[in-house]
From TrEMBL:
The keyword Disulfide bond does not apply. GO terms for biological process: acyl-CoA metabolic process; fatty acid catabolic process. It comes from the Eukaryota. Keywords: Hydrolase. Residues 307-405 form the Acyl-CoA thioesterase 2 C-terminal domain. GO terms for molecular function: fatty acyl-CoA hydrolase activity. This is Cyclic nucleotide-binding domain-containing protein. The lineage of its organism: Eukaryota, Viridiplantae, Streptophyta, Embryophyta, Tracheophyta. Residues 149-230 form the Acyl-CoA thioesterase-like N-terminal HotDog domain.
Amino acid sequence: MINTFHKNLPVRADIRSTMNTDSVVEFFENVPLLHREREYVVRRDEEVEGVYFIFQGQVLGSAGEHDSSELLLKQFDFFGRGIFGNVYSADVVALSELTCFLLMSHHCSLLESNPPISDSDKEPCLVERILSLDTLDLNLFRGFTIPNAPTFGKVFGGQFVGQALAAATNTVESTKIVHNLHSYFLLVGDITIPIIYEVNRLRDGNNFASRRVDARQKGKTIFILFASFQRYQQGFDHQESNMPHMSPPETLVTREEMVERRITDPLLPRDYRNKIATEKILTWPIDIRFCEPNYATEQTKSPPRLNYWFRARGKLSDDQALHRCVVAYASDLIFACIGLNPHRRKGMSAAALSLDHSLWFHRPLRADDWLLFVMVNPTSFESRGLTTGEMFNRKGELVVSLTQEALLKEAVNIKPIFGAKL
């Protein structure tokens, strides 16, 4: 419930703690010790080591006379002196009467001990480490392509989407969750250098927030993401899409097992089996189980459609924002490639390069539980293919809808370089 990015702002307003015990227990979800302090009244210019959590009212933060940027703090944001972690110094002024809960500095470790991305008693799984960002400034983050992350010779498109969404999420109050995103791939990313993500706060309304994220390398914008976030609101509920009947994922072979079978299948050409055997096969951070396993070569024609179950490897925390970042990351793994299926032939070398990618999140989901990804490419023309998809949970509920347009290219040798895709 707490926005952990509004911290360490010097107090310039009369602030007092007036929350009753019941409100504090509800606000902090029964975390012990947080409601045992006496009432504090903080006077103007008085310095107190502690954290002020805004329960009612608003505060305006200003970076100072040399920086004109301002930040509006609302309910669930916090500020104070002597706070742990990433800090942003600023002057704050109360815009209205404030009701705050004051957590004294000697109890701040209660907040630091439970990072939102994973449980403190376990090592983060691979996909969490891929999506992890360094905070450079209030709206500036840095991501990396870590070892063992899927790359395909360049920065994987899903990594752009997942990391950019994580950056945007870090600037939105935690009661608002992403409900759609639209992204554009402009240049091929270099896996050997960091990616800088700059977030532009387009709008912060009562129920919705909008963000734009620019990803940069070597001074160039290589990827753009627009995302919209919404506070929970009750409304209408219906679903026309039906989940197709598929075998349970536990009965299907893994992607890695399929690769092994291709190496040993005597019905496949020997040169193809030798090629597969010499390639380094990494275990993806996403476990994929194809509903209709195909052991043919990559040069065999097939329909432009695909169904598979997937889930993150490892256990994720209960943070819904994290689960949606993981699904955004996983959504680009094979999505664009099915547009090539009807055109494959012996001796053909081809690639599918994502141009844009959009997701709509309809219902809460868990990325570490099985989701069925149903995708189809209805048309391709003039080197561009359109793919649409739906994701269902095991109950048959439609949780995500997707679209992607990709550049479908045939070439003799395909060597990704840091430059334009076109």
